[in-house]
Amino acid sequence: MRRSKAFIPTTKEVPNDAVLASHIFLSRAGFISQVSSGLYNFLPLGKRVLKKIETIVNDEMESIGAQEVELSFVTPVELWQESGRIEKFGKELLRFKDRKENLFVLGPTHEEMMVNLVCNRVNSYKQLPMHLYQIKTKFRDEARPRFGLMRSREFVMKDGYSFHSSTEDLNREFATVEAAYQRILTRLGLEFRIVEADSGTIGGSGSKELMVIADSGEDTIAICDHCQYAANIEAAVRGSKKDIPEAPEAEFNRFMTPDITTIESLAYFFKVDPYYLVKAVAKRAVYDEGSDIVLFFLRGSDTLQDVKAVNALHALELVDVSEEELQEAGLITGFMGPLNFNTCKMVLDVSLKNADAMICGANEKDYHYVGVNFSALINADFADITEVCEGDSCPHCDEGILSLTKGIEVGHIFKLGTTYSAALKAEFLNEKGQREPFIMGTYGMGISRLLAAVIEQHHDDRGCIWTLSTAPYIINVMISNIKDDQQMSFAQTLYEQLKQRGVEVMLDDRKERFGFKMKDAELIGFPYTVIVGKELMNGNIQLMDRATLEQETLAADTALETILQRIST
RNA sequence: CGGGGUGUAGCUCAGUAUGGUUAGAGUACCUGGUUUGGGACCAGGGGGUCGAAGGUUCGAGUCCUUUCACCCCGACCA
Question: What is the 3-state secondary structure (H, E, C) of A355-412?
Answer without folding.
Answer: CCCEEEECCCCCEEEEEECHHHHCCCCEECCECCCCCCECCCCCCCEEEEEEEEEEEE
